[in-house]
């Protein structure tokens, strides 16, 4: 009897300890937001939060840089919070935490409209403005979308493949997330663009989980599964680097055509080296800058255009070096 009581007491104490640790960690994050809200009252005009799907992603760090520059101009206290690695549940929890912290505005992705709609509605009911960046949540209560027209970006990628290749092509698609709407649109646009070309075939599609190692594994699987493969299309920022890594490891004699997304340093270096043939260019800095500026205007009661597309194009080796526009602080792109 004493032994069972001791076991029961140990289990209870363990549960209490775990609960205290969890609440302490949660409290630290909530305190960060709440203390920041206090700070905005005395130092800043507004308190905004940028919540990416993955904090350490190079693409999102460029979005954050644009947002930070705009925040400096508009006297905004800006936080950059989110999962360390892509995780939809953690992403949703961070948005909910920002709502609980009574921030003035939220910038984030609408990765799955069904899951994000209730949170966006909750934010609006509390008077918090919501701008989606990079990935929209159509039909939700978000006020503005700032980012790429993802269907169009996929379509021009398909047009690039048609223009740059001859003869039969068997394409392996590596996509960041199979369930993410922006990735789906990039794939759909691509498929629609090449659908009328009988010489171009989609051999297969694999998920990279928006990591370089995941992209390499996905490309290697496509190489193993499809002997006729001649081309690759990567739809997220790290896919291009992962694809060329897999090609190098596979040691095939085929000269693969590789079409990648985003102008990250490794991708541009590969384009210059000739291991990547074309890159779809987005403008993450401008997305971040415009998202903050849009939230500021919403806070002032101004009417905003709900769809604010940033530019998209395809570049090839001949377009290098890229021109880096020197933007003076305070000048909106």
Automatic annotation (TrEMBL):
GO cellular component: cell envelope
InterPro entries listed in its UniProt record: Peripla_BP_I, SBP_2_dom
Classification via SUPFAM superfamilies: Periplasmic binding protein-like I
Record's keyword annotation contains Signal: yes
Annotated transmembrane regions: none
One Pfam family it belongs to: Peripla_BP_4
GO MF annotation: an example: carbohydrate binding
Subcellular location(s) of the protein: Cell envelope
Keywords (A to Z) from UniProt: Signal
Family: Belongs to the bacterial solute-binding protein 2 family.
PANTHER family recorded: D-ALLOSE-BINDING PERIPLASMIC PROTEIN-RELATED (PTHR46847:SF1)
Protein name: D-allose-binding periplasmic protein
